[in-house]
Amino acid sequence: MVEMMATGTMTGYEYDINGTNNYVPYTSGTWIPVNNIARLRFKGADQNAAYTQSNPWFAKDAQGNISE
Questions:
Q1: 60: Cα within 13 Å, side-chain hemisphere
Q2: Helix, strand or coil for residue 34?
Q3: What does the pLDDT look like over 18-59, one tens digit per residue?
Q4: Where are the domains of the chain?
Q5: Which of 2, 18, 21, 34 is most buried as measured by Cβ atoms within 10 A of its Cβ?
Q6: What pTM value is reported for the model?
Q7: CB contact at 8 A, 5 and 60
Q8: CB neighbours of 49 closer than 8 A, spacing ≥ 6?
């Protein structure tokens, strides 16, 4: 299974674990299957604010190799 993980301060990010629009806070370092990446969203406190947050991310292939 190919997965991705975001690290750093993930404040405001939510993840829909089972695809039912039941979002929970995303925890930094949690692996997500790539085909579910659309279930990760950012919900900022102020929709009109300019956000400049950048988060590193990693990918893991089916053999368990992790990107750098």
A1: 12
A2: helix
A3: 889 999 999 999 999 999 989 998 887 776 666 666 778 899
A4: 3-60
A5: 34
A6: 0.73
A7: yes
A8: none
